[in-house]
Design a protein that fits this description.
By secondary structure, the protein is mostly helical. It has helices at residues 2-40, 46-64, 86-110, 116-131, 142-172, 177-203, 214-238, 247-281, 283-293, 308-323, 325-334, 340-360, 366-380, 388-420, and strands at residues 68-69, 302-303. It is built from 14 helices and 2 strands.
Length: 421
């Protein structure tokens, strides 16, 4: 308690610095892999991806991230274990921010798409075990985390597989792909809009004071999606194509249509990522600020101070702009060759999995969801279409993320204790 009383402002400033580093890592890794398919298919340039990420990550974090973070209240550690020693919790959360941020930046340097959530969880578990003991950790939640390594990519992979197969059968593997695209693409636009609306209404509208029942939310989502599909139908019908073009040109024109959908799904991915990862990732910073402001009192939840989300948002954008290229390359071109239609199937499957997860409480990593979806698209073309060497490196990086975060956090925790004691 003396540490908080004597060094409160310093602790918050250090936490803010390390929180910024963590946000940098999120941008370099998590946001980069979310944008990787769009950049890999050349539907978006890197600059356009940064602008979209900046807008929709902010919107997702604010609208769907919630007013409080559950890092303490429903997190992987039992906050009651730290009631008598809040200084340990503050130092541990600061150590977790630096550990997770450092791991994310290291992974980004090598082009490994890893999970922000798992990085933070590993770090928090590490400091909790050495500061209080194993009893401070809610080990039962680890089952869901480990299970998500298999379940999440499997769900998104299956959805992406069938989505891609449907596009092939209904459009590309037909005698007149261009006319079939005009016929069926509005249906895919409907699905895309429906997924985006369900994510927003399910997780966001209560935050801004609009409370809808499940049936009202579904009806509103369907109505908006029908309107989007109709607008898409009008747009596609208005496009002029030369009927004398050869089949390659027809395919290219169809891919342009899916390129437009890729932009829409990129927005959905950024929004979904903001709602699921960004707000939770800055939870430790919010916890430190809350505990210091209350003089060491640990509450059931911690309100996000007004300056935290902008700090995180700036860090994310800088991280994406400065270090995001390698992870984008891994996801966009390293796993399998993507075209706009393939990338669309992967991204829509990822967003759909986020909706399923938010409705069922399934533990989810957007990174693993997207990688699973890209794998599903690759498998639809045969195992030879996948770069198994890249996939092996990705899976290994997933497995070592938890222990890497824990080991780094333990070392940093001891250093902080020595500095502030």
């Amino acid at each position: 308690m003396d540490i908080i009383a004597n060094y409160g402002t310093t602790l918050v400033l250090v936490a803010a610095l390390f929180g910024f580093l963590m946000a940098w890592g999120i941008g370099a890794n998590d946001v980069a892999n979310a944008m990787g398919t769009s950049v890999g298919t050349k539907s978006l340039t890197i600059r356009q991806a940064i602008i979209i990420a900046m807008i929709f990550e902010f919107a997702g974090a604010y609208l769907a991230g919630g007013e409080v973070t559950a890092t303490i209240r429903n997190g992987i550690i039992d906050s009651n274990a730290f009631v008598d020693s809040p200084d340990l919790l503050v130092l541990g959360m600061i150590a977790s921010l630096l550990a997770a941020g450092a791991w994310l930046i290291l992974a980004s340097y090598f082009g490994w798409p890893v999970s922000t959530t798992h990085s933070i969880i590993g770090a928090i578990v590490g400091f909790a075990v050495v500061s209080i003991g194993p009893e401070a950790v809610q080990w039962s939640k680890f089952g869901g985390i480990v299970g998500s390594w298999v379940i999440t990519p499997a769900i998104s992979g299956v959805i992406a597989y069938f989505m891609f197969i449907s596009v092939q059968k209904l459009i590309f593997n037909t005698d007149d792909p261009l006319n079939n695209a005009k016929r069926y693409v509005p249906f895919y636009m409907f699905l895309t809009a429906l997924v985006i609306c369900l994510v927003t209404i399910k997780k966001g509208l209560t935050h801004v004071g609009l409370h809808l029942t499940d049936s009202e939310g579904i009806l509103l989502s369907v109505a908006i999606s029908i309107a989007v599909a109709f607008a898409g139908w009008i747009y596609i019908r208005g496009q002029k194509y030369n009927p004398q073009d050869d089949s390659k040109m027809h395919f290219a024109n169809v891919e342009k249509v899916f390129g437009i959908l890729m932009v829409i799904t990129a927005c959905a991915m950024a929004f979904a990522h903001g709602s699921n990862d960004v707000a939770n990732a800055i939870g430790p910073l919010s916890a430190v600020a809350s505990i210091v402001a209350s003089g060491g009192e640990i509450g059931g939840s911690s309100h996000i101070a007004w300056w935290i989300l902008p700090l995180g948002g700036i860090g994310i954008v800088i991280g994406l702009a400065t270090m995001g290229e390698k992870v984008m390359a891994t996801v966009g071109t390293g796993i399998t060759h993507l075209t706009p239609s393939r990338g669309f199937a992967a991204q829509l499957a990822t967003a759909a999995t986020v909706v399923i997860a938010s409705g069922t409480g399934l533990p989810i990593s957007t990174t693993q969801t997207l990688v699973g979806a890209v794998m599903g698209v690759g498998l639809a073309r045969g195992i030879a279409a996948l770069n198994l060497g890249v996939l092996r490196n990705i899976v290994v990086s997933w497995i070592i993320t938890l222990p890497a975060g824990a080991i780094l956090a333990i070392a940093i925790f001891y250093v902080l204790q020595a500095c502030f004691s």
